[in-house]
Please model this.
Amino acid sequence: MDVAVFGASGFIGRHTCEQLRADGLAVRELARRSDPPMDALRATEAELAGAILGCDAVVNVIGIKCPDGEQTFHAMHVTVLEKILASMGEAGVRRLVNISVVVSKPDPGSAYHDTKWQADELLRASGVDWTLLKPGVVYGRGDNMLGHLTQMIGLTRFFPIVDRGRSKMQPVCVLDVAAAISACVQKPETIGKTFDVVGPAPMELRKIVRMVAEAMGEPVVILPTPYHLMKPAVHVMGWVMREPLSTPAQLQMLREGMTGDVEPMQQELGVEPRAFTAENIRGLLPGAE
Model:
């Protein structure tokens, strides 16, 4: 099979390309930092169609956590998908695996959640042979999650956590996300289906923080912090930092939780997600050999 991957140079995209190749598939990397570069937002539909012509399948992992100029949530989550779908029609490619998020929902108060949901609905109504994957919070070497947590824990032993840190998460390793994507590409029986891509069991946010601190060998004191106090601080981060430690969308997800049903991924995709333990994540932390 010949598979085109949009967003190939990103965190999930890089691991997806590696997994697809390891599974014996040919990969066309399509991204702003690929060679040749391909900007899906700025490219014409004809240019996108030319890039995927002759492919058996397309994978779209493009997504952002924080808007930046013309790269708004709507542009990157909805407009880009519209263009990819149009280019697939022009190129005669029917198979698409699209990556969303487990918490996508109609939410006018959160452009991130709302545009992810809009893209989900667009995909389901598209008429192509689609599969929708909805990961929870994704971790791995070079990620934002472990990178930001270790940075915050390393600055001070006191860790402010939204509310009381009792929200539930199911962190999933990026290698498991990539394996799920590759499985969907290769399994025609996944067409028309939606899969949560999450870790094996829900964990409280405060336990996740303690697990990272344990992996670092650092002490940590959890400081419950009301959401209404953290929200303005996160907005300020977005104004003054190029890569903020948290964004409004991420803060909302941390408060509400990110969980899903792991069983279909296990049974239908054959992916058994790794447990989020200090032992498993120690080698993934920044600076680890």
Summary: The radius of gyration is 19 Å. The chain has eleven helices and twelve strands. The first helix runs from residue 11 to 22. The chain has one domain: 2-283.
